Known about the structure:
The complex is a heterodimer.
Chain A: H1 31-43, H2 51-62, H3 67-77, H4 81-90, E1 102-107, H5 110-114, H6 117-128, E2 141-146, E3 158-160, E4 165-166, H7 171-182, E5 190-193, H8 195-201, E6 211-214
Parallel strand pairs in A: 1-2, 5-6
Antiparallel strand pairs in A: 1-3, 3-4
Helix pairs in contact in A: 2-3, 3-4
Chain B: E1 3-6, E2 9-12, H1 19-25, E3 49-55, E4 74-76, E5 81-82, E6 93-95, H2 101-114, H3 132-140, E7 158-159, E8 164-166, H4 176-184, E9 191-193, E10 200-202, H5 216-220, E11 226-228, E12 241-246, E13 255-261, E14 264-270, H6 289-295, E15 304-307, E16 310-313, H7 316-328, E17 335-338, H8 345-358, E18 364-365, H9 387-392, E19 396-397, H10 400-408, E20 414-418, E21 437-442, E22 455-458, E23 467-470, E24 475-479, H11 490-495, H12 500-504, H13 523-533, H14 543-553, H15 562-565, E25 570-571
Parallel strand pairs in B: 1-6, 17-20, 18-19, 20-21, 21-22
Antiparallel strand pairs in B: 1-2, 3-4, 3-5, 3-6, 7-8, 8-11, 9-10, 12-13, 13-14, 15-16, 15-22, 23-24, 24-25
Amino acid sequence: MSEFNIKKPVVPLPDMDPEPQIPEDELFFTEEELEQIERYKEKYPTNRSAVMPALWMAQQKFGFLPPEVMQLVADALDLPYAHVFGAATFYTQYYKEKKGTYVLDVCCSFSCQACGSYDVLDYLEEKLGIHAGETTEDGRFTIQEVECLGSCGTAPMLQVTNGPYVHNLTEEKLDQLIEDLRNDKMPPFTSVTLPQDEDEMEGNRRSDVEHTDTYQTPPETKRWI
Amino acid sequence: MPTITIDGQTIEVSGDKPLLQECLNQGVELPHFCYHPAMSAPANCRQCMVEVGTPLRDRETGEIKTDANGDPEIQWLPKLQTSCTVQVSDGMVVKTHRTSEKAKRGQRDTMEFLLINHPLDCPICDQAGKCPLQIQSYKYGSEGSRFEFRKVHKPKRVKLGPRVMLDAERCINCTRCTRFTDEVSGSCQLTINQRGVKNYPITGPGETFDDAYSMNTIDICPVGALTSTESRFKARAWEMSRTPSITTINAKGSNCYYMVRDNLIMEVVPRQNIEVNEYWLPDEERVGWAYERFNDERPEHGPEIRVDDELTPVSWDRATDAASNALSSVSSDAVFFLGSAHATVEDNYLLSRIAEHVGAEAPKYIPHVEPGHGDDWLRTDDRTPNAQGCERLGIHPVDAEVLRSRVRSGEIKVLYVLEDDPVASGLFTAEELEDVVVVMHYYNTTNKTLAATDVALPAAMVVETIGTYVNEEGRAQRVRPAKVIKEVNRTLMMATGKSRTDMHGTPFDRWHNESHQVDCLPGWEILPKVAAHLGLEFEFSGPKAIMLEVTEQNPAFHGATYEAMGLQGHRLEDVGETV
Ligand code: SF4
Ligand code: FES
Ligand code: FES
């Protein structure tokens, strides 16, 4: 949405008179989708809580959530439009505008920041020639500055398009990641545990994932800070 | 009722309110922003921190443990608590910033956080001088800030709707405004956009904040983030006088303050009255015409009489003389008195007395009912403030058809109109009144009946007079003069509101001046003058005495003395159809 960053902390106003971006004849939920929304509603005491899965579903369908889609979700859930807008803008995981194929969500909350996430951000910005919040011209990459993703133990880290996390970032890891993504190779989902835990549990406890990793304090030279 | 100890003082509390409210009710001030008694408490400003402890109970016996002195042992909650979400319990012990260093420190540090990205533009902010954030940071904040970095900038002029402007930088995200639309007005038009340092309240894109009660968010915003598109940047808080009164655009009688500078009504803001309007005012009371009628559309000259078909300014004596001459020049059944649901009880009462004196039939009033305008809350179908007062005085709605035919047939030769506009109300056309002598007390130069009026008497409006109005629910309420009129009357002067600079300023630093004084008089001054020429001497010392007589003689007003009405009004007994 913006080039909001520590050097230029300016919060823009959303477009308050937006042009619709989804063609009118595509702007609807199918019977099945509406049934699914009904099931979400039943799951929660109030419809207000069902806004999360419903928005998620809409994002899967339309790719992003322009105002008219938020209105569609609001109508389906019988909720005020403003409530849906508030929820959608709170989470960086909901895309309010069209993003690149790969969205690099760089965590810039406290732990990651302390471990150099702004250097990660700078490195990526320079490498891809865009600012956080922007998308490359070829439509392949978007960089976002996001809040804590709950993986502070592996800081600095980023998430790729609401999917797998990439942990303990270094320049090399970022280079590899971009290279892989250029070839449409997504990083694997990686479960990271602490060595002492692995000793106790005789190995990584996640037996259901292909890729596991053991946390190691990175060597001094490779660290961002 | 539970007993709690605050800073060593033991007090009894109601027990059904949060600790913060109980403290405020007891006069124990605690800093706070997000809590509002009419809404849920999200505890997001974190400013109302106190230390809270409860008596320790023995696990086995359930008895309260006591120390060596026999005092109950207190178990302190390890962290500071937000008093707005603490439910009081019997024996609770509370330490506020007055006795607890920890609480004091907590409040000071919270304040430092709240101010990190605040623009500190108090010198140009409309809220300055009445701003909870400003006041509380003087009282509880630290002197400086350790935040030495670039502040986050947010949109500074966002027109949320036709009446409300947002300065997002000033917002502390207390969510009072969004909760107001969710919980009180029900329009659900506002939400908090984004998160963290980037958040601020806004409507959904493409939506307009046009809630019929939107301007209340301006009043409850604890900072200057929300301002009125109409009155922003017009007057500073301390330049204005603040007169407690009621609003008169409908029959609800919502309690308000009229804010005045230089004899102009700058703002109308709600005044708390739980029985009537709680904390709120509808927007219709404070936009456009609500101000124009007080400020712009007032007569430039004093009283006028028609000479050679032109309204010509004359003295009050000549004008009232002309009014009484008109009344005495024809037989009593050729005179018709129109009372007014815009005028006070006192004025309508005097008019009835005059009608009785000249032997005419009892006055009638023109109803101004607009079906569908009301909303069962603070807007009513009735667009006048005193229809109930008229009814209780025995002044009933006029039968338009009958009156019109009596005027057409020439039966009525003199029409005496109190503070209304029969032509604009569609009762007559100005032509139909050509052969009738019209005496009229009027407010505004836009009054359509002026074209047919022979004696035009500018009347003091609700903001200039003293008197009583009875709202739809039968609550009698007083109005007080907020601004000065030309013919300054001592009774009015003593009741007129003063601004800080009126009271404390020297002539050199006064902003106020003597301009914008209208040459008008309250009905209770005009009517006795007219009556005197007719041989009816009213010996009232002022409106208070008139009201006293009304309460004594008319059971429908039983008990509604000025003392009883005070600032919150007096609920009258219900009356049957016939009064
Ligand atoms: S605009 Fe005012 S009332 Fe609304 S959240 Fe901000 S500070 Fe609170
Ligand atoms: S701070 Fe980055 S994951 Fe928590
Ligand atoms: S008033 Fe208690 S947290 Fe805001």
